[in-house]
Design brief:
CATH superfamily of the largest domain: Histidine kinase-like ATPase, C-terminal domain
Order of helices and strands: HHEEHHEEEHEEHHHEEEHHHHEHEEHHEE
Largest sheet: 5 strands, antiparallel
CATH architecture of the largest domain: 2-Layer Sandwich
Shape: rod-shaped
Strand order of the largest sheet: 2-1-5-4-3
Distance between the termini: 113 Å
CATH topology of the largest domain: Heat Shock Protein 90
Structural class: alpha+beta
Amino acid sequence: MNTNHQLQETLSKSEILFSKLWGISVDGMRLTDGNGTIVMVNDAYCRIVELDKEELLNRPFTVVYHQSEQKRVLETYRRDVINNEIKTHFERENTLWNEKKRWLEFSNTFLDLTGEGKYTLSIIKDITERKKAELELADSAQKYRMLFNNANDAVFVTQLSKLKLYGDFIEVNEVACKKLGYTKDEFLKLSPSAIISPKFIDEFNKQTERLLTNSHVIYELVHKAKDSKHIPVEISSHLFTYEGKPTVLSIARDITERKRVEEKLRKTGLRLRNLASHLQTIREEERTAIAREIHDELGQVLTVLKIQITLLSNKLRDDQQELKDKIISISNMIDDTVEKVQRITAKLRPYILDELGLIPAIEWQAQEFQSVTGIKCSFTLPNFELFLDSEKSTAIFRIFQEALTNIARHSKAKLISISIHLKAETLMLIVKDNGIGIAQEQTKDFKSLGIIGMKERALILGGEVTVEGIPGKGTEVRVEIPLNNN
């Protein structure tokens, strides 16, 4: 009776349960003798190695491997059996006989079933798909780590909890450590509030609340480094779930240089606005002075001429009708000249603005505009007097004049509605026409000097001018000027 037959008989008598397990197991099972010859295999093993039982039994177990691996694997097995050092559990990638690569997991144990030597029971699992996923995950983790640490910006990962308002750092990149002067171990012991300038804690709290609602926020903050250096940053935070807990990924970009440039531009812009304001003040003063000089000097001369020509007319005899007609013509020319002088002085600086105030000046200007252009103007004005300083009243009046000029040039309107009212210490002037409307691009065009001029006048006073148009339905100019001196 050969060994195989004896083994089968032993199994059938004493290990019926093992035999059933052998047959139904989803894992490959293989029994080999001390030389590495296959004594038994189950169906699952045959499926793994893609060979039939007849091709495996009584042959070296290495038959399932590629020729390039067979000798090495068999020698290792025999050495382990002799030294009684067989590996009980391990994973290995093998190339099978058909050149397919497989990752296999082995669980080995020695058995003495017949008293004729050691047998090795191997339980074998095909873990190729799992291993592939693990390797891909490891590769992704490596790439993530490389990107994480080689990013140009500081990156922080914090995990929120009910016990701690800001949570804890669970990961930071090398840039964050370098920028703020902490080691990674020191970082992981800190709360996020420890790296925020105390003046910005309230802002950080507000943005954290927004983050919990919107899952993504972008805001500016000032970080405080280990050496107390302050670093302005722009933070982009994303909320996600990691290991069942709310987690925040924050990318902090150092905007020190950007802030420096912004401050430089702000100061330059402020100087330019101050210069523009000064020039406008000088221009208004010159207009006022010229208007006064024309009114006083030229007006007086014309008045004297009118008186003299009248006296001269009274001295003429009845038979000097031709001279009388000439004098009447000259007198009419003087009257026309006086009216022209009044119009010129009004354009330079309407006396009504200084004498009666802004609202009467706007009514007068609208009536003048209506008489010249034929565009009807309607009013909604307050029934109380506005007390504005000269600078504010002049700026609002000039903005109003520019708005009317633009309407006359471009709108093709038939009707203008003008309204003034107060809202929370702010004067609001709204000029709306029913013309062709203005496109949004035109309101932002740097070549639209009229609109730019209006906006600059308002900006100098801490106010704002907005121009909105709807094609075919007209344009609205809204002027908002704060009344307080701040």
